[in-house]
Structure formats: C-alpha cells, structure tokens
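Hi V.,

Quick status before I head out on leave. The structure for the redesign project is tokenized and pasted below; the design run finished overnight.
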C-alpha cells in the first residue's frame, strides 16, 4: 500500500488495495505521497483512511525538501500538523527559492542558521542573498567554509563582502584538499584564517599537484622547514600520490 502511495496510484487502485488488507497501518503513506507531490493520494487518505497513516510535521518538512510545493500547500490548507524549521532549512539547501519564499509568507516556523550555511555550500547564491535580506537567522562560519570546500568562489566572495561570520582554517584546508586552487588563492589574499602549511598537507593528501605547487611557493622560505615538507611528503606517499611526493622532495 505504501508503495502505491509513493507511485501515485489512482483512487480506484488505492481503494482496491485498502480493501484487501483492512486492518493494516500504512505509517509512511502520507509522507511518501507528499514527497512525490501526489495530492490526489493525500486527499484520498484524508477522506477515507485518515487514521491509517502517520500525519506529522515531518510530512510537510519532507515535501518542502523534495520541492513539492503543491503538496506543501495542500498540507497547509488541509492538515494542522504544520512543519518545523527543517522545512525552510532543507528547501534552502536544495536551492528552492520559491519554496523558501512561500514558507516565509505563509508559515511561522522560520528556519535555522543552517539554511544559509547549506545554501552557501551548494552555491545557491540567490537563496543566500534572499535569506540575508529577509530572514534574521544568519549563518555560521560553516557557510564560507563549506562554500570554499565546494569551489563556490562567487558565494565565498559575497559572504566576505556582506556577512560578518567569516570562516575558519577549515575553509582553506578543505579547498586545498578538494583541489580548488582559485579559492585557495583568493582566501590566501583576502582572509587571515588560513594556515598555509596545513593546506599544503591537505592538497598533498589528495594529490592536487597544482595546488601543492602554488602553496609551496606561497610559504616563506624560513617557514618552509624540513618538518613541514616531510609531513606533506609522508601524507602524499601514504595516499599513493608519488608524483606529488617526488615533486616536494625535488623542490625543497
């Protein structure tokens, strides 16, 4: 029965299946229908079997997460469970600005700072900007950290210009670990949180030779000590990036 709700079977088919098993409880039926945007299934459940499935705030939360605005609207009008801040937070993470705006206008639960953090992580800059203008939850240092790790340089630049949270050493480390050279370069020039030696080891760990070369050149000669280079060589060798290890040994 739950699978039929997930598929969006017709009311006739649902009625037939329900009659075959009159005493069962279809716990996730409403949630699965909402996640797929099957409003006709939600209406059938409400009309004929409202007590045979679970109606909780998570139903609207997950419909919002799945960008099913038609289901969110239906739940808003026909059920009283509402949602939680998770709805707007996950909609923001998915880059669904229309959903975020609808929840802002029609619901009172709001979101958390993770909404902007997660939107920044995925490079959904329009959502980040809208949250900045219209919501008060703000973000954390994870916004810039996560955007940097994903190579979302435009988002990193915007956060630097318009938000005060900044980042931590994780921004440059994670950008280096993921081979995001442009982000590493920008952070090195514009932010003070980075630790170039840590970033060098992070880049060496994943074999990002161009990042390793740039960071190696950026480190002052007196700081480019044997222990620092040895650590980068060891981590590169440990992860089978022998070309990186050889380059470091040849150029240090």
């Amino acid at each position: 029965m739950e699978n039929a709700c997930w598929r969006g079977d017709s009311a006739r088919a649902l009625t037939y299946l329900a009659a075959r098993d009159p005493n069962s409880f279809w716990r996730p039926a409403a949630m699965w229908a909402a996640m797929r945007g099957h409003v006709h299934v939600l209406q059938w459940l409400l009309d004929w079997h409202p007590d045979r499935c679970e109606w909780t705030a998570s139903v609207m939360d997950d419909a919002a997460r799945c960008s099913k605005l038609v289901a969110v609207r239906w739940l808003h009008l026909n059920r009283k469970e509402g949602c939680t801040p998770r709805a707007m937070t996950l909609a923001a993470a998915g880059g669904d600005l229309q959903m975020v705006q609808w929840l802002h206008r029609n619901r009172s639960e709001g979101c958390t700072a993770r909404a902007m953090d997660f939107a920044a992580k995925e490079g959904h800059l329009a959502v980040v900007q809208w949250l900045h203008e219209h919501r008060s939850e703000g973000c954390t240092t994870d916004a810039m950290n996560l955007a940097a790790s994903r190579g979302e340089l435009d988002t990193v630049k915007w956060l630097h210009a318009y938000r005060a949270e900044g980042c931590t050493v994780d921004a440059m480390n994670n950008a280096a670990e993921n081979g995001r050279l442009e982000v590493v370069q920008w952070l090195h020039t514009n932010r003070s949180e980075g630790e170039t030696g840590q970033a060098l080891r992070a880049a060496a760990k994943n074999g990002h030779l161009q990042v390793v070369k740039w960071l190696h050149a950026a480190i002052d000669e007196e700081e480019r000590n044997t222990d620092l280079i040895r650590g980068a060589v060891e981590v590169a060798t440990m992860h089978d990036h022998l070309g990186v290890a050889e380059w470091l040994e040849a150029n240090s």
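Above is the designed sequence. The chain has a mean pLDDT of 97.

G. will cover questions while I'm gone.

Best,
W.
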